[in-house]
Amino acid sequence: MIYALKFSKTFDKEFGKIDKSVSQQVIKKIARLKDSPSNVGKSLLYTKPTLWEFKVESFRLFYLIQDNLSEVRILSIKHKD
Questions:
Q1: Cα dihedral sign, 18-20-26-31
Q2: Domains with residue ranges and CATH for the chain
Q3: Res 34 pLDDT > 90
Q4: In degrees, to the nearest 5, what angle opens at C-alpha 33 toward C-alphas 43 and 52?
Q5: What's the rounded Cα separation, in Å, for the pair 15 and 60?
Q6: Pairing outcome for strands 59-66 and 71-79
């Protein structure tokens, strides 16, 4: 199943601030979300709805998988500190 990707305004702002080398790695991982979003990252415990994350260097990207709509909502990217 192919998932549609939806980006939040918060993500757009934060993504514009990160380094180009890191952003290229993030783009590659985001492209993999279309095919199988649950295989790219890991789910975060005790969150409703279930939040997912994946890591690229010192950044974490947070997203939601909405199976009923066949879409992935990309919420935010944050530095791990």
A1: positive
A2: 4-79 (3.30.2310.20)
A3: yes
A4: 15
A5: 11
A6: antiparallel
Q: What type of residue is 62?
A: F
Place of tokens 């790219």: 40
Q: Which amino acid is at 1?
A: M
pTM: 0.92
**Residue 73: which H helix or E strand, with range?**
strand 71-79
- pLDDT single digits (tens) 37-70: 999 999 999 989 999 999 999 999 999 999 999 9
- DSSP letters, 27-71, are HHHHHHHTT-HHHHSEEPTT-SSPEEEEEETTEEEEEEEEGGGTE
